Amino acid sequence: MTGIQQGSTPSTNLSYVSPAPDSPWGTYLAQLDRVLPYMGDLARWSGTLSRPKRVLIVDVPVQLDNGEIVHFEGYRVQHSLSRGPGKGGIRYHPAVTLEEVMALSAWMTVKNAAVNLPFGGAKGGIRLDPRRLSAKELERVTRRYTSEIGLIIGPQRDIPAPDVNTNAQVMAWMMDTYSVNVGATTTGVVTGKPVSLGGSLGRVKATGRGVYVTGREAMRRLKIPTEGARIALQGFGNVGANAAELFAREGCKIVAVQDHGGGVYNAQGLDVRALTEHVAAHGTVAGFSGGERLESEEFWDVEAEVLIPAALEGQITEARARRLRARLVLEAANGPTVPAADDILAARGVTVLPDVICNAGGVIVSYFEWVQDFSSFFWSESEINMRLDQIITGALKHIWATAERHAISLRTGAFVVACTRVLEARNERGLYP
Ligand code: GLU
């Protein structure tokens, strides 16, 4: 059995990364270790899950507006292609590493299988700070990167999408670059495109909507009334802001929001629309006049029924897991909870709705977009939202029942459902040659 044991170093025997236990890849391996006892004979295929199928590292040379030539490091990792083409977003962030992208790609494999989409798992990223590049520079970076990973992406091979700091405009540049290189407009090579270029209605808000729908279901099961429920939210990007809007509409109170620039608190509930306008103007929630300033570690002491991490990995550490006051954690971010924190939350009776189901709304509507592009027939927004709701609530029900049946956490339950599907596919396909 590969993966890490509690307290030891991960042992995937990969020569190209050596992650610490709480790093994203170390976290993923620990999560995997917990599911293997439930895999029966399929466990013999577990090496399929504990290493990526394919890793591409690319140099992205770009001329800046001042004439200088700089080089960025980019990645595309295809963790698994057992159940279909690779699928997963592209992240632009100064902290992106190969090891992080590997973990994100593996979580995509699990997520896509957990909600039963016909995809494997993949992820990409470039280590850069997009705030320090002009729009023209970002376009050149995006186009060169797309051209470099053009070797392995394609509508039947691997389909990128937005993630942290990428959006519909970046997807339009990617689609155009790929199309120019292959000599045919190929809308299905990326999802999350502008609606005018084969994008899907409802895609921008889909991840936030999925967080809301799964959160609403979890609150119902835990008997937390939505009316007046207090929510503390970390991250106010596309996912956090859209989830906040939907929860607020249902009568929840968003009492605290923290982002990279600072935090704000209002016991009566923050005005989400006004906060969104403030963030559009200032790039951060800090300085918002509709609440008090919240110091960074104070965020974890906020009294709220629900905590939504919607930023980056590794935010819920052991120490924070002991402090936080919520009954329910909705993982809108990928990989926000380290394994030791998972155990502490379980012991404290805090329910964690894991990322692989909680934030699957985005990739579900990406799947709809990909299907619509292939058929060149586009659906209405209400049809998309209805189908999203159906798929995500159905998957959540199945995962909840699996977790109850084995008396395991929802995360391990989701991994049991997903890894069984991936390893069954792997087993049925067999080994070549
Ligand atoms: N980046 C999103 C995620 O982490 C969406 C991926 C996609 O739509 O392919 O799930």
Notes on the protein architecture:
The chain has 433 residues and is α/β, with parallel strands linked by helices. Among the domains are: 137 residues, Leucine Dehydrogenase, chain A, domain 1 (Rossmann fold), CATH 3.40.50; 148 residues, 3-Layer(aba) Sandwich (Rossmann fold), CATH 3.40.50. 42% of the residues lie in helices and 15% in strands. The chain contains 13 helices and 13 strands. The strands form three sheets. A seven-stranded mixed sheet has the order 10-9-8-7-11-12-13. Strands 1-2-5-4 form a four-stranded mixed sheet. The radius of gyration is 21 Å and the shape is globular. The chain starts with 23 loop residues before the first helix and ends with a helix. 53% of the residues are buried. The structure holds glutamic acid. The site of glutamic acid has 11 residues, from helix 11.
